[in-house]
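ok so i was messing around last nite and threw this chain in just to see what happens. nothing serious, just curious
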Amino acid sequence: MAQITKPIVELRGVEKRFGKLEVLCGIDLALERGKTTVILGESGTGKSVLIKHMMGLICPDTGKIYVDGQRIDLLGEKDLVAVRRRFGYLFQMGALFDSLSSGDNVGFPLVEHTNYSDEKIERIVAQKLSLVGLDGIQPKRPAELSGGQRKRVALARAIALEPDIILYDEPTTGLDPIRADSINDLIIKLKNELAVTSVVVTHDMISAFKVADRILMLHEGKFIADGTAQNFRNATDPRVRQFVTGDATCLSASVSPEELSHD
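result:
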């Protein structure tokens, strides 16, 4: 009999509103350990809100959230610290501290959350920067780096505490195709070498198809598609086809002009 492995992160019936805006409408999601899950959706559909729920940065209005079997949505801030240390978070624009060097940016979570000596922190910083292909870049400040380099420094910071789960919020935004593909390669590399579970929020279908083990599409607060890259390439739902191909006629062909005018 095949062994059943419990999900590393699980959301059950998660709902979230901001004022009158209903962002998440009863989301159920279980993440398989060691896999890369890509979440697609138009701007403003709640993708970033969804992944912030996973590490307790946002609390659901209703529903339950589990990390490795531990329910976290009822935990206080003090108890959430240990949970959040299991996550690495790559922010959309990197969110590096402009006043710090690249090395100090990567070392920041180690200074904040460990009692490591300066020498040990320096070793870890060098190791993480080497892992993302930036050996010796420690003295440079973010303003001296290219967009791709800043993303990689931010990624080195995200893995400084050796997380089990990495959340990527639009990791290729603002990058040219070559630098974007280098980020895709890093996502795959970290999954394989560090055995991490990854969640990638993206609009970039090239990236999604390259890195994903599983893809879901969020639309109006609910998942409307869930499958492999091949499932999405062959999708018949016009909302999914329009997003995948970028062709508005996929949607307009199945929707009346009156409906489109009220979008």
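not much to say yet. The longest strand covers residues 21-31.
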